[in-house]
Design brief:
By secondary structure, the chain is mainly β. Helices cover 5% and strands 38% of the residues. It is built from four helices and 34 strands. It has a seven-stranded antiparallel β-sheet, with no helix packed on it. Strands 2, 29, 30, 31, 32 and 33 form a six-stranded antiparallel β-sheet that branches. Strand 11 and strand 12 form a beta hairpin. 48% of the residues are buried.
Amino acid sequence: MTAHPGFHSLHEETVETLPVEGSIPDWLVGSLIRNGPGAFSFPDGSAVDHWFDGLAMLYRFTFDPGNRGGGVADEDAGGAGRVDGDAVHYRNRFLRTDAYEAARAGAFDGGFATGETTLRSRLLTFLREPYDNTNIVAERVGDDYLALTESPRRVRVDPNSLDVLGHDEYEGDAPTGQLACAHLKRDPATGTLVNVETAFGRTSRYHVHALTPDGERRHVGSVETEKPAYLHSFALTPRYVVIAEFPLRLDPLRLFKPGRQAPFIEQFEWEPDRGTRVIVLERTTGEVVADPVTDAVFGFHHVNAFERDGGREVVFDLETVPDATAIDSLYLDRLRAGSFGALGAQVDRFVVDLGSATGTGRYRAGDASVSRETLYDGGTALPTVSPARWCRRHRYVYAMRTDRPVNEWARGVLKLDTETGETVEFGDGGYFGEPIFVPNPAGDAEDDGVVLVVTLEAGSDASSLVILDGESFTERARARLPHAVPFDFHGRYFPEVRAQRAGEE
């Protein structure tokens, strides 16, 4: 095992039904599917350099209160599928993608921050056969379950077996880009998914598109940019798409530079004098209604966004760090040595005042302004809110808890009350990943539900799935996994992916 246990390679794939200490609420009957890098080294002795480039591995946790169907979650679970009482049916599996097969054959040619090539060749590859090491998150689009990364090439998977079913790429004439935000945003009122793609060229553009619940793709609008920024996520409200254009920018003229160059992400340059441009695009017309500039910051993850004052103000919470050196801290040699700078972010709230409305009810972009306040200045990482609050005003934010400055991986998770500024923390001595809130379908309060989080036991070769009560933030249940899971990225709870009951087809 490496110097830090969270950055080892897990080559074991297993199917097992896990006993539960404590109790699972009766309504928690779906599945949590997590995604992240499962291996950083390959059989031929080669390895990747950056956390973001590890081979994609999915982890499925299917909740079975009372183990009422005899514990059969998978046909191939065998004798490992039966326990007494509450159970969690667990499976982990590498995504059998082109990138996986190349790595197994000793032909892995890099990704986000590994490997040298010409930037032009890398972008042409994005166009012809985009990178498919989709190791960031799982999402449902229509009837398809997809593993996603920042490539527009998405991987379809079976949510039960975690088998790869093929690739999924957009069809039609709507404009596309060579890079996509890893995080699609869902409007819970309509079921529409929205994403932003970056198209590089002599005139570069951000293309915004929407996917209907049945998977139909519609072009929303496009925004020209002199130098595209690195975008990992964005914000969504019922009326607007918000793009925080950080000053980590790429000059498209680099496309024509001869010779081999540094890895892709190292082509972006930090230009703080530009500040952060906040682009507000109307979802119905595709019109940019505001693009004010605020101080230079960087961030990977938008927490949530909403509107207030009749839609005149757009509010979005964003996890920020002062500059883009956070990316450098995520190289594996630094992480394994204990450098965790990217995990020491703070939660900031940005308010865009759209200015005065015209006689047609629209806003004059030149009148807009943006303000910023800090909601929590302690160390955080991978913040989330209840999916029931997406695109709506939220009170609670859940995140990994770290120190500032950061000197080790997160040793706990926290619940932040954005109205009072108070926090409640949970820790058990282990290392914690991203917390996912699952609302009680019969509940009324925003924090009526549970928080799901995977922990890595300190000094042990095992991880656990911990279920916290959403209101009290105390432990409710725990299931110990058969191995130590490397630190992953993101998860989604799918209520419809349930345990197969005995006698069911």
